[in-house]
Amino acid sequence: MDPTPATQALYNKDNPFPALIRENRLLSGSGSAKETRHFVVDIKGSGLAYKCGDSLGIFPQNPPELVEEVIRLLGATGEEPVSPPRSDEVLPLCEALLSRVSLATPTKKTLQFLLPRLENPHSREQLEKLLMPEFAERLQDYLSQREIIDLLEEFPGARIDPKELVPELRKLVPRLYSIASSPVCHPDEVHLTIAVVRYQTNNRQRLGVCSTFVADRVQPHQQTVPVFVASAHFGLPEDPERDIIMVGPGTGVAPFRAFLQERIATGATGRNWLFFGDQHHATDYLYGEEFDAWHRDGKLHRLDLAWSRDQEHKIYVQNRMLEHASEIWKWLDGGAIFYVCGDAKRMAKDVDAALHDIIAQGAGLDAAGAADYVKQMKKDRRYQRDVY
Hints:
By secondary structure, this protein is α/β, with parallel strands linked by helices. It folds into three domains: 5-59 and 174-230, Elongation Factor Tu (Ef-tu), domain 3 (Beta Barrel), CATH 2.40.30; 64-168, CATH 1.20.990.10; 244-387, Rossmann fold.
């Protein structure tokens, strides 16, 4: 049953909307090293409104088999009453472990909680040493390779009361995903582009909490997921005549699919330029048919692609930018807005460095002058980033 108008305005992070997933399809091709999926989330009747550039927050659940294993290692039944972190609420242990606490990367605080509960002298000595200030780097490496379940396995016999443990764990927080659709085109839907995370550490298979939750465990058309809209300071220019340059490799292309849908649907006359990249053209060209069609129709005025594994030397989006430095400068000098979305650790830094070089070369500035130009672009909201 659709929510009543009185309740529609109440859906937010504190009271998420139970949304059905209408579509879950694989975007990446057979043989890709990545598993990237396209999701359609039904928000009809929720009263939720979004704009291009916003994100959708999803509250995930931990894998049930992982929860069962943790309960077994604790020597518990799962029915023990516990309070989640920073909450007065009392829930059965199984429910708290499923949807309220993070079972992923433990913290130093977790080990400090564990230490006085160790009965084995050797285990205690081992953990005390790891917690010494001089071993801080080793500690971080140790924690990055483990989840809560690893600690329970590595320190058997620890006297752990679930009532004491659960409040010490971190909250299971929602994950935010850039929206890949325009509300003009899809007012009752939100499209998402999600890379499903699966990897191994410490000889154990790990699963991205939210990405595998929606990919593997939520049945389309049957189960709901708690969602909310997170507004962003990232979005299309008010002036439809403005040119835009979008750099979004991998899943970073999501908001730019939304941008293009909206610019085309509303008849915006500003030019659109997209830089997209990934590993292989044959398997990783996300939404490639759409982008190619828009490019052929003259709606996506420029399209530059970078494939890092299709040739001997790796080519990335920043390399393509530098190849077209003079044309990018013409667009920027004419008032174009520059957008970046995706990986913050490497890609966004490399793109930023390339942008500085392009501006220095195009405007005849030294490094300090180019830096000042970029600062002014940010102040004028002509340089926008959505990086993670």
